[in-house]
Fold this sequence. Notes:
The complex is a heterodimer.
Chain A: E1 3-4, E2 7-8, H1 25-46, E3 50-52, E4 61-62, E5 67-68, H2 71-83, E6 87-89, E7 96-99, H3 104-117, E8 124-126, H4 127-132, H5 146-158, E9 162-166, E10 173-177
Antiparallel strand pairs in A: 1-2, 3-7, 4-5, 6-7, 8-10, 9-10
Helix pairs in contact in A: 1-2, 3-5
Chain B: H1 7-52, H2 54-59, H3 61-73, H4 85-90, H5 92-114, E1 117-119, H6 120-130, H7 140-150, E2 158-162, E3 165-169, H8 177-186, E4 191-193, H9 194-201, H10 205-217, E5 222-224, E6 233-235, H11 243-250
Antiparallel strand pairs in B: 1-3, 2-3, 4-6, 5-6
Helix pairs in contact in B: 5-6, 5-7, 5-11, 9-10
Amino acid sequence: MQKLGEFKLPHFFSYPPYFTLQPVRDTREKQVQLWKELIIDYCRAQKIFVIGLEEDFPLFSNPVIERSLSHEARVAFLSALISDGRAEWIDKGHKKCLILWHRIQDWADLIVQFVRENGLEDNVVTIEEIRSGTESRGTELYGMDRTVLMRALKLLEHKGKLAIFKGTSTDDEGVKFSL
Amino acid sequence: MRRRPGIGGLQNAAAARDQYRLLGENVAKLRTDLMKEQLATFRSQLEDFARKHKNDIRKNPAFRSQFHEMCAKVGVDPLASNKGFWAELLGIGDFYYELGVQIVDICLSTRAHNGGLISLEELCKLLGQRRKGAREAVSEDDCLRAISKLKVLGSGFEVISVGKKKLVRSVPTELNKDHNEILELAQAQGFVTVDEVQRRHSWPSGRAIDALDTLLDEGLAMIDDGNKDGRRRYWFPCVSSISSYAGADSL
């Protein structure tokens, strides 16, 4: 079994035809499904939030069998993730893709859980503290993408569970929870 | 001797016929009794044998296969009924029915990957993985027996021979001779190219492409355009050793 660092690659990753978009519908569905799972699993394990379509993303090629995904194939797999609600194009040119191995709603739930566990209800924290503070160390929130975090916080704000405000002294924005 | 006409003569002839019939019946009865006796002895011997080697039959696939062979030679099918003394004695029927269910399961769960055609070798390997906890080892012979029992269901489970390999088919696809020959060719490397098929079989290109297209449509083949020489390769998961993997992931 091939590995990427600590990540165990599935066996289909070593089978050349999986790198060519299959023309037959049923076969392609299966192929797309396997790739979707692989991209999500890998991004989750490696905490990768953004995939650049034209960049050297490790999953886009397998040097061992000398195969790499065509542009068309990359777009096909990412688009499939997008239609599942597990990814979004960040830019208009569709060159960068945000991968949501947790949906925004799930991230929001994780934040609420984090707040409860640390007794931060009715407290004020900065956005950076959520991403890299000592409390978040060891949780899934640690090192999470700022865009995704903001989206989750906005969702919670919309539900009236917190308020986001601009700090007066620092550049960073603050969050006041009211769970 | 002068023939004696009249009622007396007819009666005599009838009496003689009766005598012959009686004698004949006696002989037949004797023979049947003898036969029955032999059968009873044979059966009890076979039972004794089965009882004595019960553990071997259960645990040792090679021994089991020989036992089946012996039974086949004398016209006994231990799997014919689940109610017979064989089932009570050996539990052998249940063993094969259990295998059958697991085989169906494996065939279904790998179908998306291999199009419903799997090599017997792979099937056995997956079966072994699934039955890790079970006491009895499973041989290819056991697989074949279990599959032959599945035919009763009419679901189109069939074992086909392609070249040196045996493939188990779980979809009602009809493979013609051309398809079989392509599969055989693919066994060497796991894939073929159109050129290769044309060259090896001296077919016109249309014939090769037609056959390959059918195999693609059936989900038995996958295309690969990534090779450096630019020639499209047709891969066959059912003959590549990799075929177990994608299936195994989802098992």
